[in-house]
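> agent: user asked for a holo structure of the chain below bound to zinc ion. Plan: (1) validate sequence alphabet, (2) canonicalize SMILES, (3) run complex prediction with ligand conditioning, (4) return tokens. Step 1... ok. Step 2... ok. Step 3 dispatched.
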Amino acid sequence: MSSKKTEISQEVPEAVDLAGARKALEEEKVSLQQKLEEMGFGGSGLEYDDNFADSSQVTAERGEVETLVAQLREALSDVEVALSKMSSNRYGICENCGLPISAARLEAIPTAKLCITCVAQRSRR
Ligand SMILES: [Zn+2]
């Protein structure tokens, strides 16, 4: 029942606060990097995942740390992906269906890769 015409196409919806999202992502990135650094996994150590997981001398305690580090790294990589999408104007586009992700969703989850419809479809399986 909206009188608004659908003239906007292929654009990131104006409602998305890109500057705000970028700020949130950059803050998240710094905080994640700090956590990794505190645990001794800072710097440019994003590449040696395989070797690390391959290590046969992983104790239970170390396993926990490893899990946490893996989670932090995953979160960090999500943030970096989102930031790189921003630079190439692909931010806020669903990776599955190619439609814009709602501004409210991006505000809640700045690293969201899928729109709410696709997430619902995936979690159903
Ligand atoms: Zn989608």
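> agent: step 4 complete. Summary for user: Confidence is low (pLDDT under 50) at residues 45-50. The CA atoms of residues 95 and 103 lie 16 Å apart.
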